[in-house]
């Protein structure tokens, strides 16, 4: 089953970084999420109850990323993956965390992980 629900370039303003100056400011993180989800039941019934609501996912992920400080983008990616697997019961998720302001001569840097439910 290769169906997914995705969210691209989710804009989060986060306290993120390893240096002291980074703990005093907010910086942009852009998250790309690809979530394994069987879309057939929602399509067959045209019923929102069977859909994985990308708006609900986006709001919960934004709150998680913005409401507490983190040092590493790796930590953010793991926490977001765990949220999606546990709270939304998704079978797998791919999370990309972009920190576009981090390296002056790169358009973006970051990490990408894939996690599955145990
Ligand atoms: N693999 C990582 N490398 C770096 C990170 C990170 O979160 N993961 N963070 C930093 C600093 O916070 C940097 O972004 C400041 O510009 C350096 N390397």
UniProtKB/TrEMBL annotation:
What EC designation does it have? Answer: 4.1.2.25
Molecular function (GO) terms for this protein are:
dihydroneopterin aldolase activity; isomerase activity
What does UniProt give as GO cellular component?
cytoplasm
Q: Name one GO biological process term.
A: folic acid biosynthetic process
What are the residue boundaries of the Dihydroneopterin aldolase/epimerase domain, all occurrences included?
Answer: 5-115
Q: Which UniProt keywords apply?
A: Folate biosynthesis, Isomerase, Lyase
Pathway where it operates: Cofactor biosynthesis; tetrahydrofolate biosynthesis; 2-amino-4-hydroxy-6-hydroxymethyl-7,8-dihydropteridine diphosphate from 7,8-dihydroneopterin triphosphate: step 3/4
Q: Which InterPro entries match?
A: Dihydroneopterin_aldolase (IPR006156), FolB_dom (IPR006157), GTP-CH-I_C/QueF (IPR043133)
Q: Which reaction does it catalyse?
A: 7,8-dihydroneopterin = 7,8-dihydromonapterin; 7,8-dihydroneopterin = 6-hydroxymethyl-7,8-dihydropterin + glycolaldehyde
Question: Which class of enzymes does this protein belong to?
Answer: lyase
Q: Which family does it belong to?
A: Belongs to the DHNA family.
What this chain does, per the entry, is described as: Catalyzes the conversion of 7,8-dihydroneopterin to 6-hydroxymethyl-7,8-dihydropterin.
Protein name stated in the entry: 7,8-dihydroneopterin aldolase
Q: Which organism is it from?
A: Ferrimonas lipolytica
Its taxonomic path starts at: Bacteria, Pseudomonadati, Pseudomonadota, Gammaproteobacteria, Alteromonadales
């Amino acid at each position: 089953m290769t169906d997914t629900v995705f969210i691209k370039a989710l804009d989060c303003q986060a306290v993120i970084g390893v240096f002291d100056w980074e703990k005093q400011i907010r910086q942009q993180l852009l998250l790309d999420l690809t979530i394994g989800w069987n879309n057939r039941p929602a399509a067959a019934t045209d019923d929102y109850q069977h859909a994985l609501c990308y708006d609900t996912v986006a709001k919960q992920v934004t709150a998680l990323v913005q409401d507490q400080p983190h040092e590493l983008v790796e930590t953010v990616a793991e926490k977001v993956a765990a949220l999606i697997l546990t709270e939304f019961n998704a079978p797998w998720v791919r999370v990309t965390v972009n920190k576009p302001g981090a390296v002056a001569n790169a358009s973006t840097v970051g990490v990408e992980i894939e996690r599955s439910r145990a």
